[in-house]
C-alpha cells in the first residue's frame, strides 16, 4: 500500500479525489487531509506519507510556497491544480507529475502507477529538490538543469549539453554533447515551450535544435541545418524565415 495525504483548500475536491482513488487506485491508502498549507505541513510531518497530492492554488500560502517551507521532503508528489499555467513551468522543468481539475481517471491511474513503480527511487527526491531550487531562485535566464525521465531512470542534464531533440510519435529523443541519447515518453511539444527561451530553434515539426551547435544553414536539398557533429536537420518551408532570424539574432 502507498500511504498518501491530500492537501486542498476545498473540501469537495478532497472528497472527490479520495473517492476516485478508492475506485481506481485501491493500492493507495489516504491517511489524512488538510485544507491549508499550514495544515498540510503539520499533516506531512505527522504522517510521513509516501505520496502527497497537493493543490497548487491555495489562499494565503500556495502549494509551491508550502513546499519551500517543508524541512523534510522525503515523499513522492503529484500536483493537482485547476490552473494550467500556475507554476507549471517549474513543475515541468523538474518533470513532476500534475493533474488538472477536473481530474481524469486515466491520468490519475497513470500518475499513481508511476509513483508506485518508483516509490523507493531517489530520483523522486532529486526532482523535488530541483523544483524547490527553481521556485526559490526563479527560472534561470541562461543555462538550466532539466529532468528527463526515461524508462529506467530520471536524468538531470543542463540545457547546454543538449544538441538537439527529435520526435518519434509520442516519444522525444534527446541527443547530448557527450554522445548519449535519452528517450523520454513525452511529445516534443512538451519541451518546446521549455527550451525555446534558452537558445533552441524549432526548424521542423519533428525537431528542436540548440542554436549554439548549428554550424550553418544549407540552402540545397530543400534547406537544412548542418550541426557541428555533422547531423543534418531539415528546415520546413514555413520555418525558414523564422530560423534565419533566430540564427542571426544575438538572443
Secondary structure elements and their pairing?
Layout: E1 2-7, H1 11-24, E2 28-34, H2 37-47, E3 51-55, H3 63-69, E4 76-81, H4 88-93, E5 97-100, H5 105-117, H6 123-137, E6 145-149, E7 154-158, E8 162-168, E9 171-176, E10 181-184, H7 188-195, E11 200-204, E12 207-210, E13 214-218, E14 224-227, E15 232-234, H8 240-248
Parallel strand pairs: 1-2, 1-3, 3-4, 4-5
Antiparallel strand pairs: 6-7, 8-9, 8-12, 9-10, 11-12, 13-14, 14-15
Helix pairs in contact: 2-3
Describe this protein's structure.
The structure is a single chain. The protein has 251 residues and is α/β, with parallel strands linked by helices. The chain has 2 domains: 2-137, Response regulator (Rossmann fold, 3-Layer(aba) Sandwich); 145-248, OB fold (Dihydrolipoamide Acetyltransferase, E2P), CATH 2.40.50.1020. The protein is 33% helix and 30% strand. The chain is built from 8 helices and 15 strands. A 5-stranded parallel β-sheet has the order 2-1-3-4-5, with helices on both faces. It has a 5-stranded antiparallel β-sheet with strand order 10-9-8-12-11. α2 (37-47) crosses α3. The longest helix has 15 residues, at 123-137. The protein starts with a strand and ends with a helix. The mean pLDDT is 87.
Short synopsis of the structure:
The protein is of the alpha/beta class and 251 residues long.
Amino acid at each position: 500500500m502507498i500511504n498518501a495525504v491530500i492537501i486542498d483548500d476545498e473540501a469537495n475536491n478532497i472528497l472527490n479525489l479520495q473517492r476516485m482513488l478508492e475506485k481506481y487506485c485501491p493500492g493507495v491508502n489516504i491517511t489524512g487531509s488538510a485544507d491549508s498549507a499550514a495544515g498540510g505541513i503539520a499533516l506531512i510531518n505527522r504522517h510521513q506519507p509516501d505520496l502527497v497530492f497537493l493543490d497548487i492554488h491555495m489562499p494565503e500560502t500556495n502549494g509551491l510556497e508550502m513546499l519551500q517551507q517543508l524541512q523534510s521532503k522525503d515523499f513522492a508528489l503529484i500536483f493537482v491544480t485547476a490552473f494550467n499555467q500556475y507554476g507549471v513551468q517549474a513543475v515541468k522543468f523538474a518533470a513532476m507529475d500534475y493533474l488538472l481539475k477536473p481530474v481524469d481517471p486515466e491520468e490519475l491511474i497513470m500518475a499513481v502507477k508511476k509513483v508506485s513503480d518508483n516509490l523507493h527511487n531517489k530520483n523522486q527526491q532529486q526532482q523535488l529538490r530541483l523544483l524547490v531550487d527553481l521556485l526559490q531562485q526563479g527560472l534561470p535566464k541562461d543555462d538550466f538543469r532539466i529532468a528527463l525521465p526515461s524508462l529506467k531512470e530520471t536524468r538531470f542534464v543542463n540545457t547546454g549539453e543538449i544538441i538537439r531533440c527529435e520526435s518519434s510519435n509520442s516519444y522525444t529523443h534527446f541527443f547530448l554533447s557527450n554522445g548519449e541519447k535519452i528517450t523520454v515518453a513525452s511529445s516534443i511539444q512538451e519541451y518546446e515551450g521549455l527550451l525555446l527561451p534558452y537558445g533552441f530553434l524549432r526548424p521542423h515539426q519533428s525537431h528542436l535544435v540548440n542554436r549554439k551547435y548549428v554550424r550553418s544553414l544549407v540552402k540545397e536539398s530543400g534547406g537544412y541545418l548542418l550541426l557541428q557533429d555533422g547531423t543534418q536537420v531539415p528546415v520546413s518551408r514555413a520555418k525558414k524565415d523564422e530560423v534565419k532570424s533566430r540564427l542571426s539574432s544575438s538572443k
